Amino acid sequence: MTEWAYFTNMDKRALDIDANRRAQKWTRKELLWRLVWEVLERPLFRWTPRQLWWWRRFILRQFGAKIGNAVQIHPTARISIPWNLEVGDYSAIGDSAIIYCLGPIKIGRSVTVSQYAHLCAGTHDFRQVDMPLIKAQITIADEVWVCANAFIGPDTVIGARTIVAAAAVVVRDVGSDLIVGGNPAVQVSVRT
Fold this sequence. Notes:
By secondary structure, the protein is α/β, with parallel strands linked by helices.
């Protein structure tokens, strides 16, 4: 049976939401660090003036993120679980971007993640009735531009120098030197 056929037949099987909620998704240490980050993120990160790039790099590093040199992360960017984040030199994360690091997110060198883009390194296995959490990985190679409002889904790789067009939805790996757009994203051109 195909995944789509399985998904469309799920209404015949009752979801077990209680089992999902009871599942141990995080260790106690992870839960504690998530709580500390959520309490301190607003005063130490989000409420900082825009020009304090160095300060936000410092704060993220204190929480285990691997942040390169001259990285510019806007104060309105939403970063969950920063110890799962790696950002290469000279990259930028724009206003109100969502960097949801349930699993590792690796952003290469000289990458631009524009405003309102959403990188989501987590999902649920819909094929199981308890829909367990999947902590997937996202890898974005060097010199990529993720345009405004684009969505990069879990377990994807974006090749070097690729442009992900505004509002594109990437749910599969994308090669290098391409321009992709749409929902789901498909190749619309080659970057020269």
